[in-house]
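User: Sequence recovery, please. Input:
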């Protein structure tokens, strides 16, 4: 599933393509026909990423809400839109550009009240300039759940997925199984700052890179990672491979229904145990 940086890039892209323009909307597949009819002919004011949710705000007071889920994909281009091929849920077209959406989990229209409700049920997004991580830490400190699961809970931190979470925990030297209530304020400050930095860099690069300069392939004389998700990482999908720092085999285990990855040497289970807060 795309993580927050991808949605943030889409919001920027769609703003560049359509903001200030009147758009014609259609649902060639038919499943969003009613919504498309309500949107068609309105002007896109602005776009916004809230965690993994994408919003288009239109001048008729409605907002288009999209969650890509596992299979959702956008395509766009210049000029007139092509003939729809396959299951196109939504097609937008201005005089200059077109956009197609296929396979999203959510494609719906929201009123301003519903947009507020969406924002309110999401946790703090490290990519937003107004992000305040205080409430997220309060939630984490009240929980016995494993830290990796808490950091992927979108009502606590929004936009984070498995890659950012496993990598940030590696960089902090904390095991993914650390109970939330044992996370110290200092460790939370480190993790939060790292999420802000890594996710911001991923927005710029269009991929997730988490290794420090001294662990890049050229610095270590090792071959670059080959993975369709791209980017250099420490532990994500590296089970059985040697840790870039200590050489120990990276482990994989299931946590809250998802795979988790960690280095048992760099992230020992004794790490991060809080004394007092
Ligand atoms: Zn290691």
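Assistant: Recovered sequence (277 residues):
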């Amino acid at each position: 599933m795309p993580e927050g940086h991808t949605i943030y890039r889409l919001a920027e892209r769609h703003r560049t393509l359509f903001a200030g323009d009147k758009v014609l909307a259609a649902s060639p597949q038919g499943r969003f026909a009613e919504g498309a009819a309500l949107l068609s002919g309105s002007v896109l004011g602005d776009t916004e990423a809230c965690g993994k949710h994408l919003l288009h705000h239109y001048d008729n007071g409605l907002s288009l809400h999209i969650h890509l889920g596992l299979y959702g994909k956008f395509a766009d281009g210049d000029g007139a839109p092509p003939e729809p091929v396959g299951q196109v849920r939504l097609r937008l077209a201005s005089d200059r550009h077109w956009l197609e959406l296929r396979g999203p989990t959510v494609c719906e229209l929201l009123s301003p009240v519903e947009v507020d409700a969406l924002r309110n049920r999401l946790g703090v997004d490290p990519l937003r300039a107004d992000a305040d991580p205080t409430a997220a830490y309060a939630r984490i400190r009240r929980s016995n759940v494993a830290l990796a699961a808490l950091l992927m809970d979108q009502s606590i931190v929004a936009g984070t997925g498995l890659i950012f979470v496993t990598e940030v925990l590696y960089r902090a030297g904390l095991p993914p199984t650390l109970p939330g209530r044992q996370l110290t304020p200092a460790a939370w400050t480190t993790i939060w700052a790292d999420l802000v930095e890594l996710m911001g860099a991923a927005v710029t690069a269009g991929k997730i890179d988490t290794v420090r300069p001294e662990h890049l392939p050229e610095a270590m004389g090792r071959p670059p990672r080959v993975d369709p998700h791209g980017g250099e990482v420490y532990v994500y999908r590296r089970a059985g491979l040697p840790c870039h720092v200590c050489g120990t085999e990276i482990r994989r285990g299931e946590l809250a229904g998802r795979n988790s990855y960690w280095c048992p040497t760099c992230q020992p289970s004794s790490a991060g145990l809080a004394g007092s807060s």
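Strands lie at 24-26, 44-50, 53-58, 63-67, 73-78, 88-93, 97-102, 106-110, 251-255, 258-262.
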